[in-house]
Specification:
The chain is built from 19 helices and 20 strands. The strands form six sheets. Strands 1-10-9-8-6-2-3 form a seven-stranded mixed beta sheet, sandwiched between helices. A four-stranded antiparallel beta sheet has the order 11-13-15-14. Helices cover 38% and strands 16% of the residues. It starts with a helix and ends with a helix.
Length: 489
């Protein structure tokens, strides 16, 4: 299967030439000895600038061909290669919605949206309305949104600009995208799915389906996460749905606004290569699924720890699970997730992330890790004193209702702010997004009023082992940053 852009870059790099253009290393080992030693001369030769004939310049160029092949692979009307990760794709989606319909129409988003979408809300001047995901009260983690919950949320919105949801979740929970798309479309809204963790979906019969094929209108795909491209590379897919004609030029404008004019040829080539690897990798993906299944089975058989996805049937919003995500409940085995991750990192076993109660193993499509080493290292950890108390996790996720939105997030973010004692921040408008971990759902967004209940919740989480509040100007929460009194009046 062809990889036109990657091949064109490789051919260009093979030609002996006097390079008197950027990048400054000019693929010259003498000019860049440290880079050459660290990366190798071949990488430097392939680190080429944009706007080269036969690579990305002119009609039908190899980059354009690679984009077409990617769109075909994910069944999209059009695909964009982005080189600042799914975070950039999220901001592009928000910017597109900002120009879609009247400025006063709200966008209905999952409250646990990635911070980059919140950034996009600020950049685009969007008015947000939120729908809460389901939460596992024992493990303190959030999942997704059911069609019924979305329908109820949309009932109070006259004319939504769009719907923004996440599937799969960080822990591999998959939402009912076909039904959710029907609900969104019935409300006249395009559906944007942050599928950052599902770039591999649809490339093996035992994997969940790709949301582009399930009715989503715009899909964020963090290809580097499980799809195998280089870190910071991602794709944005536009489906050939009912809103495609309106969205396509708006997405293109958002892409032009956010993409570097010197996008890395190495990152772009890695996306081209990852697409081909996924398309031809069914046997490799099967091996990864088999390894993940064995990891789950080994952990279950020993009885000390539990598998998070075994509880997915308790949640109405979850209809499937990513088999390449192995999320392990370590709290039931007397350990804190953060301690497990830190200790095993020192022992050469690296997990993706930890919460207070769990650790997450991610197997990239085609990766077969040493399952025995992982299982033995995990079970060799002695229980912690005071560790593994699910009741403590349960207490952390009685989420308070957020305060009312008093200002557009953009207006609050750019307003003159001041740090005040936390007690004095109650009743004031926040300039920052504050999210307590666990479970990682924003409790306050720019423009929302800070309430006493929210402050109490944030302080309680910050005081727990492993708990913290992302976005706080003061990690101790002695102060919070709010819109200046003269502005808020």
């Amino acid at each position: 299967m062809p990889t036109p852009y990657a091949d064109a870059v490789a051919r260009y790099a093979e030609i002996d030439r006097a390079r008197v253009y950027v990048p400054g290393h000019a693929a010259d080992p003498g000019a860049a000895p440290a880079l050459t030693e660290w990366f190798g001369a071949e990488v430097l030769r392939r680190d080429v600038p944009p706007l080269l004939a036969g690579i990305d310049k002119g009609p039908g160029n190899p980059l354009a061909e690679a984009l077409t092949l990617a769109a075909e692979a994910w069944s999209a009307r059009r695909t964009w290669f982005v080189t600042n990760g799914a975070s950039q794709a999220n901001r592009i989606a928000a910017l597109a919605l900002g120009a879609f319909r009247d400025s006063g129409d709200p966008v209905v988003g999952q409250r646990s949206a990635h911070s980059s979408f919140t950034d996009g809300v600020i950049l685009a001047g969007l008015s947000p309305s939120f729908v809460s995901p389901s939460i596992d009260p024992v493990l303190g983690i959030n999942h997704g949104v059911s069609p019924e919950v979305l329908r109820a949320a949309l009932a109070g919105v006259a004319r939504p600009k769009g719907v923004y949801l996440i599937s799969p979740s960080y822990f591999g929970a998959v939402a009912d995208i076909p039904a959710i798309a029907e609900v969104a479309h019935a409300a006249g809204a395009p559906l944007i799915v942050d599928a950052a963790w599902g770039a591999h979906f649809g490339f093996h019969p035992d994997l969940p389906e790709n949301p582009v094929r399930q009715g989503a209108d715009l899909v964020i795909s963090s290809t580097h996460k499980l799809g195998g491209s280089l870190t910071q590379s991602a794709m944005l897919h536009l489906a050939d749905g009912p809103f495609a004609d309106e969205l396509e030029p708006l997405v293109e404008r958002g892409f032009t606004l956010t993409q570097s004019t010197s996008a890395s040829a190495l990152l772009l080539a890695s996306l081209d290569l990852a697409r081909e690897t996924l398309q031809t990798g069914e046997a490799r993906i099967a091996a990864s699924i088999g390894a993940a299944d064995r990891l789950r089975d080994e952990i279950r058989s020993r009885g000390r720890f539990a598998i998070v996805s075994d509880r997915f049937g308790d949640f109405a919003d979850i209809v499937d699970a990513d088999p390449l995500r192995v999320s392990i409940d370590v709290a039931c085995g007397g350990l804190h997730g953060h301690t497990v991750r830190d200790r095993l990192e020192r022992d050469g076993v690296s997990f993706e992330i930890a919460t207070d109660s769990a650790v997450v193993a991610v197997l990239g499509a085609g990766v077969v890790p040493d399952v025995d080493r992982i299982v033995e290292a995990l079970h060799a950890l002695a229980p912690e004193q005071g560790g593994g108390e699910p009741a403590a996790a349960e207490a952390t996720v009685a989420l308070p209702e957020p305060g009312p939105l008093a200002m557009l997030p953009r207006d609050a973010f750019f307003a003159a702010g001041e740090a005040v004692p936390t007690a004095d921040a109650i009743g004031r408008v926040s300039t920052d997004a504050l999210a307590a971990y666990p479970p990682g759902i924003p409790n306050v967004l720019p423009g929302e009023v800070i309430t006493a209940e929210v402050v109490e919740f944030l302080q309680r989480i910050a005081a727990t082992p492993g708990g913290y509040v992302r976005g706080a100007v003061d990690p101790s929460l002695a102060t919070l940053r709010v819109v200046g009194a003269s502005v808020s009046k």
